[in-house]
Design brief:
The structure holds two protein chains of two kinds.
Chain A: H1 2-20, H2 24-45, H3 68-99
Chain B: H1 2-20, H2 24-44, H3 48-71, H4 85-111, H5 123-134, H6 139-147, H7 149-170
Helix pairs in contact in B: 1-2, 2-3, 5-6, 6-7
Classes of the chains: A mainly alpha, B mainly alpha.
Amino acid sequence: MIIFASCIILFLIGLYAIVTKRNLIKIAIGFAFIEYAVNLLFALIGFKHGALAPIITQVNTPHNFVDPIPQALVLTAIVIALGTTALMLTVILRIYNRYKTFDIAEIKKLKG
Amino acid sequence: MIELYLFLIFMLIAAIIATEIKDLLAAVISLGAVGFAVAIMFILVQAPDLAIVQIVVEVLTVVIFVAVILRTTHIDETIGKKLKGTQILSIVLYAFFTILFLIVVFRSFQELPEFGNATMKVASEYIKLGLPQTGGTNIVADVILDFRALDTLGEATVLFTSVIGVVALMRKVGRKK
């Protein structure tokens, strides 16, 4: 149980960075932490003591594998995380070129 | 599983450093430390496919972050400034949400199996049918490429949409001075 709780702590660190930091790069780092925390929690839930990776090496013997479904889902999620991070950093780069700062309190030109 | 605990502690320390340090380049290196610790933990929980993908994605993430920082600045000027009203409000809201979130997490963790005792209700079918129906020996590859191939198609769609977004935002033609 404590091993799942550390994933939740990593999630909360990422959320802290997103909510309270004023630097755009720190906010992007917070998003990356949340992605890691969820991926790691899924992989940990599928673990079984004494089991092997889900790759068949011998037919006709009873298989003792860890759960392959969380791994398949997380494999998709990791790649999508890369896409969202790249898009987010591109937007951050354009914002910096326009305003010459990463501070979200200084970026005010769109304010009505 | 003592090494798993060691890597979890390492990951949490690196995460705290990444959020609080003043130099953005150091923060990105700490982000890379967290990502590679996650990759090693994937190996420890018997997920080699995830470890390979995580290492590749982590290298690309750090390279993109460093490329952005090299074109801009690497000092975080917002650290050490006096807190403004909105920031204090967001910290209070964060604390409130954290308490709410922890209550929900505690309740839902009662339903989860203990660490190391996965239930495998759906997975036993996939393991039984994986080799005879798809011909693949890697069950994870069978699931993502055969049983749930439409999910993978959606993943490719999302990836290419983000690539189109990056190209459209970075192009030089048609940009106003």
